[in-house]
Amino acid sequence: MIAVLVAARLIAGYSPAPAEMKINHTVHKGDTAVAEDFCPAGGYLAIEDGLVAIYSGRPGSCGVLEEITGIALDEVRPGERERLRAGIPFDDDDQQQLLLDGLIID
């Protein structure tokens, strides 16, 4: 419901303050009917339920949750954890895979 409200506000030209946008910028894949019309191209990595997740869209705008990986946050390099909290953008599948490979502690 919140995702639909955010989508309706964005389509109507409403520009939320950054703090408002962080409340819920996630649209789950089953709810994408409205979101696909206004989410920017590309994707990003972020955190969902303590795991690394893959979203379409861009951090700070909207995001469609595409996949939750099996990578737990405690497996991620400490410096990358903060980047994940903000969202790490990528442009294509190759870049996404490189980012995922670089997250894990050796």
Short account of what is shown:
The protein is 38% helix and 27% strand.
Beta-strand proportion: 25-35%
Low-confidence stretches: 1-12, 14-24
Radius of gyration over C-alpha positions, nearest whole angstrom = 14 Å
Number of helices: 5
Alpha carbon gap, first and last residue: 40 Å
**In percent, how helical is the residue content?**
25-40%
Compute the number of structural domains.
Answer: 1
Describe this structure in words.
By secondary structure, the protein is an alpha+beta fold. A five-stranded mixed beta sheet has the order 1-4-3-2-5. The chain has one domain. It is globular, with a radius of gyration of 14 Å. The protein has five helices and five strands, in the order ααβαβββαβα.
List keywords for this structure.
106 residues; alpha+beta; 5 helices; 27% strand; disordered N terminus
List the helices and strands and how they pair.
Blueprint: H1 2-11, H2 18-23, E1 26-28, H3 32-35, E2 43-48, E3 51-57, E4 63-72, H4 78-86, E5 88-90, H5 93-103
Parallel strand pairs: 1-4
Antiparallel strand pairs: 2-3, 2-5, 3-4
